[in-house]
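Lab notebook page, bench 4
Experiment: in silico fold of construct C2
Operator: M.H.
Input chain length: 318 residues
Purpose: comparison with the prior construct
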Amino acid sequence: MGSSSKDDTGSDGDTSSRDTPPSNSSLFSEGERVLAYHGPCIYEAKVQKAELRKKEWRYYVHYLGWNKNWDEWVGVDRLLKHTEENVVKQQALQKKQGADRSSKSGRSAQTKQKSSTDVKVEKEDIKSYVAKGKKRKSDSGTEKDNVSVEKLVKIQIPSTLKKQLVDDWEFVNQQDKLVKLPRSPNVDDILTKYLQYRSKKDGMMTDSIGEILKGIRCYFDKALPVMLLYKKERQQYHDLVVDNVSPSTIYGAEHLLRLFVKLPELLAYVNIEDETLIRLQQKMIDFLKFMQKNQSTFFLSAYDGSRVSEGKGKGKDE
């Protein structure tokens, strides 16, 4: 969510930039401040380099407010001129995402009923989901009528992380304990560590990995209040996630792992070619192996029981 108050201006352009430029002239110049698409999000960025490669312009961008490890090469279709019109587009998108989040997390009876059935990941669901790599049939038929099971990306969760999911469920729902927040390392830290690990291993930083990790962060921030929290964790969320703070800077591996249970369902709505889907699946599995390798560092071995009184009186999640 990096909005920056720097005022290096970027542009005047009447060009709206999801068009392909003539091969010999660049739409964006080095040092120009721009807006960059990533999935459903738009971020402020700065063009560091511009190169003509195979008759197409590529731009090396730095996302303002992000660690430079996230700098990457992108095509012209990912960039927008930093005009008033496009800033309004960015703000409207952010506002829409914020409205979606608050409308789903702030209501009582009706919303809570939905969250306890459709949103909550129960112990049995975790066990059956991670064992079979499939989503529950009862879910798929009601809310999400157009998703076929074949379309779902299968993400095999390593066995020690399956156990982590079950322990996580028991801590919160049976022992009335919560993850102590803010977490360190948080989700942003874990994604950055993985980026560094892959860059070191591959000897370079690939566009696709940086892009996927930004996508995971974006999905996490939007999905957390809607489908990644147990009922007993909601008050803690409302206490800590205020003033547009990103959940990825507060929550850690425990909640990030829950996202991977839901990702197949979420990705079913994204229009991705089969080949890209297979590559994405491989990257997700590699990321989970990285989490498994660092399990003792990334995950808590015990949760916090000191805030148990907040959860009491609300009844148990079933």
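Observations: Confidence is low (pLDDT under 50) at residues 1-22, 104-150, 308-318. The chain is about 50% helix and 10% strand.
Next step: discuss at group meeting.
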